[in-house]
Design a protein that fits this description.
The protein has 8 helices and 13 strands. The chain has 225 residues and is α/β, with parallel strands linked by helices. The chain is globular, with a radius of gyration of 18 Å. The protein binds calcium ion.
Length: 225
């Protein structure tokens, strides 16, 4: 899953980038509203962490632009918005939710709570209502970052985990390499590398041959038993 962190305080932005990357997310950071708009218009993010007080505007405006379609994302996908702010006033919370934020967290907050809220937002609209995804005897725990196959633990790299999570949230669907690159890798990924193909290949070997279909010129599909 790919996240955009919009935060102008460098220390906090860096802390979030490190914490979220460790938790397995692909993370891009924007320090201003203009930079955030630029990134949103070229990348499809699954979720944006949005600080309200930005040097060139406020997060409310960015959120409204996204929700009203003034700011278009490349795939016209709906980006989840989690507002982060020092303002704890009730009217700010109400306004944030009215402008289209999906959730709201007041600073200072614990990273563990932020991660739990992100997981909850990312599994909205998917079949799972718990942190555990299960397809047949393949079980992926998004909170503990563990995967088991036929009850045996499977050791995956962070990118293999990210690809598997993305595929498990879309069982039976064909997902293109571009989509995987977009949602599992960050802005530093070279779009011309073979990194997706290589990662899917190693993941397939760990899950067992036949676990992931390659659909010629369309992408990959997790084979559901
Ligand atoms: Ca700020």
């Amino acid at each position: 899953m790919r996240l955009l962190v919009v935060e102008d305080e460098d220390d906090l932005a860096e802390g979030l980038r490190v914490g979220l990357t460790r938790a397995g997310y692909a993370v891009d950071v924007a320090g201003t509203s203009a930079e955030a708009s630029g990134r949103l218009s070229v990348n499809d993010y699954d979720l944006m962490l949005l600080d309200l007080n930005l040097p060139d505007g406020d997060g409310f405006e960015l959120c409204r632009a996204l929700r009203t379609g003034t700011l278009r994302t490349p795939g016209d996908t709906e980006v989840r918005v989690l507002m982060l702010t020092a303002r704890g006033r009730v009217d700010d919370r109400v306004r944030g939710l009215d402008e289209g934020a999906d959730d709201y967290l007041v600073k200072p907050f614990a990273l563990a709570e932020l991660l739990a809220r992100i997981r909850a937002l990312l599994r909205r609209d998917t079949s799972g209502s718990s942190a555990v995804l299960r397809i047949g005897d393949l079980v992926l725990d998004t909170a503990r970052h563990t995967v088991t196959l036929r009850a045996a633990p499977l050791s995956l790299t962070p990118k293999e985990f990210g690809v598997l999570e993305y595929l498990m949230l879309r069982p039976g669907h064909v997902v293109s390499s571009e989509e995987l690159l977009e949602h599992v890798w960050d802005a530093n990924a070279d779009p011309f590398t073979q990194t997706v193909r290589v990662t899917v290949g190693t993941l397939r070997r760990k899950l067992g041959e036949g676990s992931i279909d390659t659909v010629v010129s369309r992408g990959y599909r997790l084979v559901t038993p």
